[in-house]
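Lab notebook, design round three. We kept the backbone fixed and only want residue identities now. Task for the bench partner: fill in a sequence for the structure below.
Input C-alpha cells:
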C-alpha cells in the first residue's frame, strides 16, 4: 500500500520533466531555505519514515532518535562501507554516509514499508543535498572564523604598537601582511560612524587600501574604525570611502614613528573634534605649538626624569608596562585603555594606582594628570638619544618652566580666544577643570545647571581647536595654560 502511494505521488508531476519531490528538495537549496533540520523533516514526510541525522560520534544533529546497530553505524560513519540496509521486526532501515569537510555523518531512515525505487531515490538525493548544506555551512563558518581571527590579529598588532613594541608588531604582521610595517613612520586615521554601519565601513577600508594599511575595529569606541598606514595614498583611499558614507567623520594624525602610535592615535581622535565643524567632515591634526616646545629642552628633560625617578628602581619590563599603561590611561578611560591593551580594566586601574602611589600624586586632579602627562610626553619625545642635562638645568622646577615668556604668551593667547564670549565660558572652563572635569560639581560651584557647564565646555572646543570633554592631550594643554597664567594653582608633585 505504501509503495502504491509513493508511486501515485510521483506520477502527478513527472509529466513536467522532474518529479515533484525533486523540485521540493531543490527548494531547500535556496538561500532562504538552507536548513539541514528542515531537510530532514521534509525527508521524513516525503517517504513516510522516521529519520535521524547523526554525527560521527553518534550524537543526534537533526530528526528523531532511532535504535541502531552501533557497530554498523560506526562502520558507515568511518567509511568502511558507504551505505547499509536492514530489514527486521517489521521495519526497513537504510543507513547512508554523508561526508563533509570536517568529518562524516550518518543518515538513518526507518519505515514500515519496503524502500521502492522512488523512496530510494529520494533518500539518495536528500543525502546529497544534506552534504551540500553541511559543506556550505562549514565553509561559511570557516570564513567567519578566519575573518574573526584576522580581525583579532590586526587588533593584536595595534595593541603591540600602542605599547611601543614595534619589533613584536612587525613579526606578527609579517606572516599575513609582508612589508606593511617595514616603514619607520606612519599616519593614523580614525573614522567615526554610526555603530550600525561600522562593520561595513571597516570592510570597505580593507578593500580600498588593498592590505596596505592596518584596519582595526576600535575595541574602545563602537563607532570608530582605526586605520594605520605607512602609505601616503591611504588618505585618498579613505576619502573615497567616506564619500559613500556622508555621515562619517575622519580625523588624521601627522606622520609619527611606529613607536609613537599611541600619540598618533590621540592626534587622530583630537582631529575628530575639528572635523565635526568642517563642511567635508574631515580634519588632519594641526602641528600646532605645544607648551613643551616653548621650554628649555635640557631643563625639561631633567625635570621629567626627576618626576619619574621613583619608577627607575623597578625592573625594566615592569617599568615599561606601567608607563605604557599610564600614558594610555591618561589619554582614555580605564575601560577604553583596557580594551586597547587587551587587559582587564582592573589591571589598568591597579597599574595606574601603583604609579600614583610611587609618584605621590592623585590622578583625580586634572592639573596633576596634566603635569604627569607632560613628563611622560617629554620622555617619549625628548629623551631618545639625549644625554643628561647639566646641573643648572636640573635645578629648574615646573613653575620656572611655565613662567617663561614664550609659554606665558602662548597660554594668554590660547585662553584669550574665549574672552569675547559673553557667557564667560572661560570662567566655566576654569571651574570645570578645577573640579576634576566634573560637570555636576562645577555646576554647584557656579550655581548653574550641569548641562549649561557641558554646553559651555563643548562650545569652547572649536574655539580652542581642542577636544576637551574626552580626557587627553588637548585637555591637559588647556589645563597647563591655566596654570601658566595663574588661573589655576600649580599641583604638588612629590618628585618635582
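Proposed sequence:
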Amino acid at each position: 500500500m505504501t509503495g502504491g502511494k509513493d508511486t501515485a505521488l510521483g506520477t502527478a508531476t513527472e509529466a513536467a520533466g522532474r518529479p515533484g519531490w525533486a523540485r521540493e528538495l531543490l527548494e531547500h537549496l535556496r538561500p532562504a531555505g538552507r536548513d539541514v533540520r528542515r531537510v530532514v523533516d521534509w525527508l521524513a514526510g516525503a517517504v513516510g519514515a522516521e529519520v535521524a541525522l547523526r554525527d560521527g560520534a553518534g550524537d543526534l544533529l537533526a530528526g528523531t532518535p532511532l535504535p541502531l546497530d552501533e557497530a554498523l553505524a560506526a562502520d558507515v560513519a568511518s567509511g568502511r562501507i558507504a551505505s547499509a540496509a536492514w530489514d527486521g521486526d517489521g521495519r526497513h532501515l537504510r543507513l547512508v554516509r554523508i561526508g563533509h569537510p570536517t568529518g562524516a555523518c550518518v543518515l538513518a531512515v526507518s519505515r514500515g514499508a519496503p524502500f521502492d525505487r522512488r523512496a530510494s531515490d529520494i533518500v539518495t538525493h536528500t543525502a546529497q543535498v544534506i552534504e551540500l548544506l553541511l559543506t556550505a555551512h562549514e565553509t561559511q563558518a570557516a570564513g567567519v572564523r578566519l575573518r574573526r581571527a584576522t580581525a583579532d590579529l590586526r587588533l593584536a598588532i595595534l595593541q603591540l604598537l600602542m605599547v611601543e613594541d614595534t619589533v613584536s608588531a612587525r613579526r606578527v604582521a609579517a606572516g599575513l601582511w609582508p612589508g606593511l610595517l617595514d616603514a619607520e613612520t606612519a599616519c593614523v586615521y580614525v573614522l567615526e560612524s554610526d555603530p550600525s554601519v561600522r562593520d561595513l565601513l571597516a570592510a570597505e577600508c580593507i578593500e580600498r587600501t588593498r592590505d596596505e594599511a592596518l584596519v582595526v575595529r576600535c575595541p574602545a569606541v563602537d563607532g570608530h574604525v582605526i586605520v594605520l598606514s605607512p602609505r601616503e595614498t591611504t588618505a585618498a583611499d579613505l576619502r573615497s570611502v567616506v564619500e559613500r558614507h556622508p555621515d562619517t567623520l575622519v580625523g588624521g594624525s601627522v606622520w609619527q614613528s611606529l613607536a609613537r602610535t599611541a600619540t598618533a592615535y590621540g592626534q587622530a581622535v583630537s582631529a575628530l573634534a575639528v572635523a565635526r565643524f568642517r563642511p567635508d567632515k574631515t580634519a588632519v591634526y594641526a602641528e600646532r605649538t605645544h607648551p613643551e616646545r616653548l621650554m628649555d629642552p635640557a631643563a625639561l628633560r631633567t625635570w621629567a626624569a626627576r618626576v619619574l625617578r621613583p619608577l627607575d628602581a623597578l625592573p625594566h619590563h615592569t617599568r615599561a608596562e606601567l608607563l605604557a599603561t599610564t600614558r594610555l590611561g591618561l589619554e582614555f578611560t580605564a575601560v577604553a585603555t583596557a580594551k586597547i591593551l587587551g587587559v582587564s580594566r582592573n589591571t589598568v586601574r591597579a597599574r595606574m594606582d601603583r604609579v600614583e602611589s610611587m609618584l605621590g600624586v592623585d590622578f583625580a586632579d586634572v592639573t596633576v594628570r596634566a603635569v604627569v602627562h607632560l613628563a611622560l610626553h617629554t620622555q617619549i619625545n625628548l629623551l631618545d638619544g639625549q644625554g643628561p642635562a647639566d646641573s643648572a638645568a636640573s635645578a629648574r622646577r615646573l613653575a620656572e618652566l611655565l613662567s617663561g615668556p614664550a609659554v606665558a604668551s602662548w597660554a594668554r593667547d590660547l585662553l584669550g580666544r574665549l574672552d569675547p564670549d559673553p557667557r564667560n565660558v572661560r570662567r566655566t572652563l576654569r571651574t570645570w577643570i578645577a573640579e576634576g572635569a566634573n560637570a555636576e560639581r562645577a555646576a554647584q560651584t557656579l550655581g548653574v545647571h550641569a548641562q549649561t557647564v557641558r554646553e559651555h565646555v563643548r562650545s569652547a572646543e572649536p574655539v580652542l581647536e581642542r577636544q576637551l570633554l574626552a580626557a587627553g592631550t588637548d585637555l591637559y594643554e588647556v589645563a597647563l595654560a591655566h596654570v601658566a597664567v595663574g588661573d589655576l594653582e600649580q599641583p604638588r608633585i612629590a618628585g618635582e
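Keep this in mind before ordering anything: Residues 1-17, 383-393 have pLDDT under 50 and may be disordered.
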